[in-house]
């Protein structure tokens, strides 16, 4: 049983200890992605985000959720969700706060990230409401997000509940600019109602990107940029490439994940060709004439 | 059974290992893959040799801790081990001295291996070559005045050889190019490119630990536990040896009449 002594140390070092008590908001971090496979870099992002938020004295990160994308995403080289889920579970077996969630991967169709965020946010508050009493805001299952402002103001009424923040790398933030990849109202919902924790990568300038977008700038207080000083670019793409070529990936991902991959011979030249001639689900959806719900 | 013609090799990494990190261990994996891919070599083993406390580097934790952590980290490795000889020497030991020691030791161990008929198996006829495993900054350290004796560098690259892992081999190629000594032995310097940019340095790990930040997934869990149990790496520990001159600079300062083996 690994005891996380660092959290005890952090409490002692809190800038607010002994001073006026500021309200501390509970936070759950949600990371969406292929996790094809999960790597030490993915796991490190959670640790960095937690340290950063705790350090502000305003947040207490209570949980981390890894939500692997469904197979319907149709990304090139994406292997079955069942494997990606199991590898993520193995990787987080010895983490006391990061969990894997299979809801997204079980959906038949690809789901927009905003929908996944919404689902987990509702789950979070359903738990919370079982403990607390009053919730004056009604939210039905079918939610229409055409009215950005009303959605955001509804959320702001529930300010005292735990916050769900989307955890991602700077590349995801910058993907907001890729045509047809994201719906503007989804971006607005994620950064407006919830929050984004963005881990910087070399070669990107998240601050500049946020500054150059009016939509993002409007909610910049909900966007937490975390600078990764220990540059660590273990991309899953690189790991798959190394595996294909028979090179070692030891120390780039947890050992039990490597064992899992090797026992089943996942990630070969063939597996990398999966979906090679197919268009990514979001691009398929948004470039077609009809709009999605 | 076909006898392999590959030259057997052992890789030796010298350094502070203060503490050992995933990146240190990664160097071994990368080097082995690279050497195997040449078709000419078979890496038989790897040795991590933590420097002795006499090195005098600022923030250096006690050798007994650094050795313990390295052993924990490499506990599940099938081919890399930790050797304490260097750290147990009374004074700081020149790298080339450590290499000579291991080279002789490997040769001796080889001599004791016999098959039932009293013969040495064919593969063992060729004694494993010992090569120094290092990062790109190591090549540049040869330029630091007083840190290395020329004749040591000569023996290191000439007699033994280097396997140098770096992010861009261009930087290492330049270092070899700019030194006549290194250039002369370029055939004995293997440059391995690490395409994944990974700057998990022990310095950064210590900094994070001092500030109560997480180093999980950068360093094995067993090492993190050890660090916390023994409360290594604090602001105080980082000040150890502050103001002290690095031992090699003292030992190797130009003095007439001093012999190589002082």
Summarize this, please?
The complex is a heterodimer of chains A (293) and B (262). With 293 residues, chain A is α/β, with parallel strands linked by helices. Chain A has helices spanning 5-13, 40-56, 81-91, 103-106, 113-131, 148-157, 170-175, 184-194, 206-211, 214-218, 236-244, 255-264, 269-272, 281-287; strands at 25-33, 59-68, 98-100, 163-169, 196-199, 223-226.
What does this structure look like?
Chain B: It is an enzyme of class 2 (transferase). The complex is a heterodimer of chains A (293) and B (262). Chain A has 293 residues and is α/β, with parallel strands linked by helices. In chain A, helix 3 runs antiparallel to helix 12 and helix 5 (113-131) packs parallel to helix 8 (184-194). Chain A is 44% helix and 13% strand. Chain A has a six-stranded parallel beta sheet with strand order 3-2-1-4-5-6, with helices on both faces. Chain B is α/β, with parallel strands linked by helices and 262 residues long. Chain B has one domain: HUPs (Rossmann fold), CATH 3.40.50. In chain B, 42% of the residues lie in helices and 15% in strands. In chain B, strand 2, helix 2 and strand 3 form a beta-alpha-beta unit. In chain B, helix 2 (63-73) runs antiparallel to helix 11.
């Amino acid at each position: 049983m690994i005891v996380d002594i660092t959290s005890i140390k952090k409490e002692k070092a809190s800038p607010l200890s002994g001073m006026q008590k500021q309200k501390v908001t509970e936070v759950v971090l949600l990371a969406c992605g292929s996790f094809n496979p999960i790597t030490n870099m993915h796991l490190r992002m959670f640790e960095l985000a937690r340290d950063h938020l705790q350090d502000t004295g305003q947040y207490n990160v209570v949980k981390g959720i890894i939500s692997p994308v469904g197979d319907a995403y149709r990304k090139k080289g994406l292997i079955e969700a069942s494997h990606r889920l199991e590898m993520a579970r193995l990787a987080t077996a010895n983490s006391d706060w990061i969990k894997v969630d299979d809801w997204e991967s079980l959906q038949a169709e690809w789901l927009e990230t905003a929908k996944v965020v919404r689902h987990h946010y509702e789950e979070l508050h359903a738990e919370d409401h079982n403990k607390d009493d009053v919730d004056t805001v009604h939210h039905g299952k079918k939610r229409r997000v055409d009215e950005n402002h009303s959605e955001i103001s509804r959320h702001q009424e529930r300010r005292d509940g735990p916050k769900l923040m989307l955890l991602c790398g700077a590349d995801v933030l910058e993907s907001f600019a890729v045509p047809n990849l994201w719906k503007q109202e989804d971006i607005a919902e994620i950064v407006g109602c919830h929050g984004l924790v963005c881990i910087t990568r070399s070669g990107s300038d998240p601050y500049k990107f946020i500054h150059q977008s009016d939509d993002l700038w409007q909610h910049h207080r909900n966007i937490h940029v975390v600078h990764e000083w220990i540059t660590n670019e273990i991309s899953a793409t690189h790991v798959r490439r190394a595996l294909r070529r028979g090179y070692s990936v030891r120390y780039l991902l947890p050992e039990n994940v490597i064992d899992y991959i090797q026992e089943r011979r996942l990630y070969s030249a063939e597996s990398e060709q999966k979906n090679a001639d197919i268009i990514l689900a979001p691009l398929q959806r948004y470039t077609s004439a009809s709009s999605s719900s | 059974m076909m006898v392999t013609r590959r030259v057997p090799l052992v890789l030796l990494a010298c350094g502070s290992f203060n503490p050992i990190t995933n990146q240190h261990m990664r160097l071994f994996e990368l080097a082995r893959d690279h050497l195997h891919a040449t078709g000419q070599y078979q890496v038989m083993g790897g040795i991590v040799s933590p420097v002795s406390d006499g090195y005098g580097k600022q923030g250096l934790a006690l050798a007994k801790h650094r050795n313990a952590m390295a052993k924990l980290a490499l506990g599940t490795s099938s081919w890399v081990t930790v050797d304490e000889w260097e750290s147990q020497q009374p004074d700081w030991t020149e790298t080339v001295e450590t290499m000579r020691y291991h080279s002789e030791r490997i040769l001796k161990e080889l001599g004791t291996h016999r098959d039932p008929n009293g013969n040495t198996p064919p593969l063992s006829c060729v004694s494993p070559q010992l090569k120094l495993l290092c990062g790109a900054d190591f090549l540049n350290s040869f330029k630091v005045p007083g840190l290395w004796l020329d004749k040591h560098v000569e023996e290191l690259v000439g007699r033994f050889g280097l396997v140098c892992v770096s992010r861009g081999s261009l930087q290492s190629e330049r270092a070899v190019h700019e030194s006549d000594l290194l250039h002369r032995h370029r055939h004995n310097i293997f440059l391995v490119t690490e395409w994944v940019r990974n700057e998990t340095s022990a310095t950064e790990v210590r900094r994070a630990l001092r500030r109560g930040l997480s180093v999980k997934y950068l360093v094995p869990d067993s090492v993190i536990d050890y660090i916390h149990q023994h409360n290594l790496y604090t602001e105080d520990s980082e000040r150890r040896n502050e103001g002290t001159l690095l031992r090699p600079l003292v030992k190797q300062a130009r003095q007439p009449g001093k012999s190589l083996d002082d």
